[in-house]
Design brief:
This protein is an alpha+beta fold. Helix content is 48%, strand content 29%. A hairpin with a 2-residue loop joins strand 5 and strand 6. The relative contact order is 0.12.
Length: 137
């Protein structure tokens, strides 16, 4: 009788041990999945910040071109330096032929293309914007 009780007691302990090990394994899988989600969130936030910096660089250059501070007479490529480290801005333009309602040619309208390039985790990234500028002569 004593051996039967010992046997049942040992069986129960083994079953409890298996339950605990299974619980720890499930908990570990959950923690690993949560860690992966946190890693993805950090990567997404980093990409959002880089894109925001690129958008700000494009906005700044567009405002400078519209104000006449940056000439559009030639294509140019500028390293944005300390303000936007690692980013290069390319500027190009082409003259647009347009006519007014009387059919008269309008001179001095240009389409300006701005493109900012940078590298994130060894992958090239870029954003671009196009807009029109009137430069009367």
């Amino acid at each position: 009788m004593r051996n039967a009780r010992k046997s049942r007691s040992l069986g129960r302990r083994a079953f409890v041990l298996i339950e605990v090990m299974l619980g720890v394994a499930i908990f570990s899988a959950g923690v690993l999945a949560l860690g992966r989600c946190a890693s993805n969130c950090v990567a997404a936030e980093s990409e959002r910040q880089e894109t925001e910096r690129a958008r700000l660089a494009l906005e700044n250059r567009m405002a400078e071109v519209e104000a006449g501070e940056i000439p559009i007479d030639r294509d140019r490529s500028d390293d944005l330096g300390d303000a936007f480290p690692g980013m290069t801005l390319k500027q190009s333009r082409r003259q647009v032929s347009a006519k007014n309602e009387k059919g008269v040619e309008i001179n001095g309208i240009y389409e300006v293309d701005l493109e900012v390039d940078w590298t994130t985790e060894n992958e090239p990234q870029s954003r671009e914007i196009s807009f029109y500028v009137l430069r009367s002569r």
